[in-house]
Specification:
The chain is 5% helix and 56% strand. By secondary structure, it is mostly beta strands. Among the domains are: 106 residues, no CATH class; 54 residues, SH3 type barrels; 85 residues, Immunoglobulin-like (Sandwich), CATH 2.60.40. Strands 4-12-2-1-15-17-16 form a 7-stranded mixed sheet, with helices on one face. A 6-stranded mixed sheet has the order 23-20-19-26-29-28, with no helix packed on it. A 5-stranded antiparallel sheet has the order 9-8-7-6-10, with no helix packed on it. The N terminus is likely disordered.
């Protein structure tokens, strides 16, 4: 089943099994990237026979091919045509419709010119009783037109042509997809002066740029890989199944199909062109570890500072964390919090380690030198590498993880420090460097391509 068809079918299932929608509420489900499902109920009056009715106030970013109308109870009801009208009123469109018609123009000097509009491209050209008048756009104060021409509308509108064989008064339900809405997670961490613990909270940020304000809304957010057909590229989305821990007045999680839905347990408003933040993880204390990493063969010629923690229940979390920005503040000597850096974390299941890169260590220096590269035969090489690690701190000794990537099929022949091979591509050393001292790592590796 194509993705878009699948989503529309899914909407139909929701209509079929869900309780009726309340006419005084909107129902908005937001996905991770530029997609939302909107549902609402409205009371309409459609005379028996063939007639039309319309919905105004739909978002400018609506996908009209995704619209589904449920006529509800009341007897026979057939949908003959469905139109999306978006030819909105503007100065240019009004003037286009009034070409060769009579209008009145008031200038900035309060002079009134009445005549037949012959051109609206830049300046206005009027054919008046006294001759042809050309008015520059900067000279025009007001335009006086008899009416809004037929076919122009003030707001995007859905229009249905239907054949009603039942009751003229109905409560219909509509569902549609719209672009311009997305949500993401953000985390705020306050780290203590010893870099041993942090207070962490999590927020859902909902960005509404759909072209509509949703008042009195039942809000849900969905995490999951909901596939959509291509094109259009602006409607692509990507997410991850996850759980969420509810904060007071926040979200409650439940499984849905192969995804997870999170219901906000209160009514809210999503204003157009607004980012709304709602807490989903109440502040909790989590132990962490500061890690120094030197990885020069990946273009990192400085020693990186990272904060790492295990996302486990024993550490105060133990919930899958959605991808998002991880912002860190750190306690200074006077007890005040200062900004220490930020990173983006990927979707992280429970019991996995989270690593956040905050910046480069000022007082730690790494220097890598290739001392020897011997070609044995064919694509067989022997390489000797020397890495100098200097700790310019006055008091604190540190442990630096040196991460190398020899390439090909490799084997360490000699090293003055213990090493590990976490996978086929990485070679790691964990080296203690006392304050004010330099430590030299010297190793030889045999490489075959």
């Amino acid at each position: 089943m194509p993705a878009r068809t699948g989503l529309i079918a899914l909407v139909g299932v929701l209509f079929a099994v869900a309780a009726p929608l309340h006419a005084d509420l909107l129902y908005v489900t937001v996905y991770n990237d530029d997609l939302a499902l909107v549902k609402e109920a409205r009371e309409i009056e459609v005379p028996r026979g063939i007639g039309e009715f319309s919905f105004t106030g739909v978002p400018a970013r609506i996908d009209p091919t995704s619209v589904r109308l449920d006529p509800g109870k009341g007897g026979e009801f057939a949908i003959l045509e469905q139109d999306y009208r978006y030819d909105l009123v503007s100065r240019e469109k009004l003037l286009e419709r009034y070409l060769d018609r009579t209008i009145e123009v008031v200038t900035e000097l309060e002079s009134i010119h009445r005549g037949v509009l012959k051109s609206a491209a830049g300046s206005l050209v009027l054919e008046t009783e006294g001759g042809v008048v050309v008015l520059g756009a900067d000279k025009i104060a007001n335009l006086i037109l008899p009416e809004i021409p037929e076919g122009l509308i003030t707001r995007p509108t859905l229009v249905w042509k239907v054949e009603n064989g039942g009751s003229p008064n109905r409560t219909v339900e509509i569902a549609y997809l719209t672009g311009g809405m997305s949500w993401h997670a953000e985390y705020v961490a306050a780290v203590d002066a010893k870099d041993e613990r942090m207070k962490i909270s999590g927020w859902v940020s909902i960005d509404n740029r759909s072209g509509r304000t949703y008042e009195s809304t039942r809000l849900k957010v969905v995490a999951g890989d909901v596939h959509r057909a291509m094109p259009p590229p602006q409607l692509r989305r990507k997410g991850m199944a996850m759980d969420m821990m509810a904060a007071p007045g926040g979200f409650e999680e439940r499984e849905f199909f192969e995804y997870h839905i999170y219901d906000l347990d209160r009514i809210t408003t999503l204003a157009d062109r607004e980012v709304k933040q709602i807490q989903f993880i109440a502040e909790r204390v989590v132990p962490l570890e500061k890690v120094y990493v030197y990885e020069p063969t990946r273009g990192n010629d400085k020693i990186q500072v990272k904060l790492e923690f295990v996302n486990s229940e024993e550490n105060g979390l133990g919930i899958p964390l959605p991808a998002g920005k991880f912002r860190v503040y750190r306690e200074d000597a006077d007890g005040a919090l200062e900004f220490a850096g930020e990173d983006r974390i990927d979707h992280t299941p429970r019991d996995e380690r989270v690593s956040t890169y905050l910046g480069n260590a000022f007082d730690l220096v790494g220097e890598r030198n290739e001392m020897q590269m011997e070609r044995r035969e064919g694509r067989h090489f022997r390489q000797r590498v020397e890495i100098k690690l200097r700790n310019r701190k006055e008091k604190d000794g540190v442990t630096i993880i040196v991460r190398e990537h020899p390439g090909g099929h490799w084997e360490v022949l000699d090293s003055n420090f213990a090493w590990e091979k976490p996978n086929a591509h990485d070679l790691e050393f964990e080296i203690d460097v006392p304050a004010g001292e330099e430590v030299i790592l010297d190793y030889t590796v045999d490489i075959k391509y």
